[in-house]
Amino acid sequence: MEADRISSVAVIGTGQMGPGIALVINLAGWPVTLIGISPEETARGVQGYQAALNFLVEHEAVTPAEADLAIARLRTSMDIDDARFADLVVEAIVEHLPTKQTLFQKLDVLCPAATIIASNTSGLRISDIAALMECHPERAVTTHFWNPGHLMPLVEVIQGEKTSDETVRATSDFLKRCGKKPVIGRKDLPGQICNRLFQAVIREAIYLVQEDIATAEDVETAIKAGMGLRFPVYGPLEHLDAVGLDLAIAVQSSVLPSLCNSTEPGALLKQYVDQGKLGAKTGLGFYNWQVRSVDELRRSRDLFLVERLKEGRK
Ligand SMILES: NC(=O)c1ccc[n+]([C@@H]2O[C@H](COP(=O)([O-])OP(=O)(O)OC[C@H]3O[C@@H](n4cnc5c(N)ncnc54)[C@H](O)[C@@H]3O)[C@@H](O)[C@H]2O)c1
What we know:
The protein is α/β, with parallel strands linked by helices. The chain is built from twelve helices and eight strands. The longest helix has 20 residues, at 39-58. The structure holds nicotinamide-adenine-dinucleotide (NAD). Nicotinamide-adenine-dinucleotide is lined by residues 12-18, 36-37, 41, 92-95, 99, 103, 120-122, 144, 147.
């Protein structure tokens, strides 16, 4: 199926992720039916969509005229059966395997054979989500939009055990046409691509604090003022080629033996959770959220991202 054969999209799920995904596709020019399970949930989806769109307009990433066009391309529905009119269905419902499996089984029967059925799952295997599909399991694929979906360019496209190369290619082409940066995972593994990389950093970040090698604030500064700052233009493998692979072996030989290599969640993480310190939602974690605001932190992130989005479009 060619990307240009995708002429309409359905997004199922009106929580944090569904509305942003619908917005990105509407802004790129395609009609979307956003499907919620109840009037309240559907209204919540429209609210989330509108808030994301307002943010983009307020920060001049989208003109008011483009915003009007996007909204004109949005339809809402409370009937999953309406997904049968779409060439691409993106599922963004709760991260619960049996619920996703039942939905994929239903969509498999409901949708024409050429319809691509994608899951926004963050952690489940698409091979498991598609396990009950008997008609066309080759059209099931993961499209993991990074949060916030309307600001982050990355979408991980994961090929399941039965997903066809054609499904992966058409999905990836479509995402590019929506202005996204898709990456393709050829093996259906936990953590896809980016969460595997992120977890390697998180494991060592916890360990550095746990072993009193550095404070949480200094770990954060090392990332924000050091490693993280060059990543947008200078990736880790480019870095290795730039410094020389022989030097890379010398550094790995001396550093790797002292890194955390635990396959369990971090000991300090477990200790905090046992103490009822769950992070921002209980007021304490690595930081004191009684004096800091997580909403402010998220807002700083979104302000940074919207500027990158504008730069990317220039
Ligand atoms: N929140 C994130 O940071 C994030 C990032 C990337 C991917 N994801 C993934 O995206 C998906 C959605 O996450 P979210 O954060 O938007 O969830 P959410 O909890 O905010 O929303 C879940 C939505 O699913 C709907 N729903 C529940 N059961 C349903 C059913 N049986 N049929 C149809 N709809 C149903 C709910 O009404 C709600 O609209 C999950 O798979 C999640 O892992 C989340």
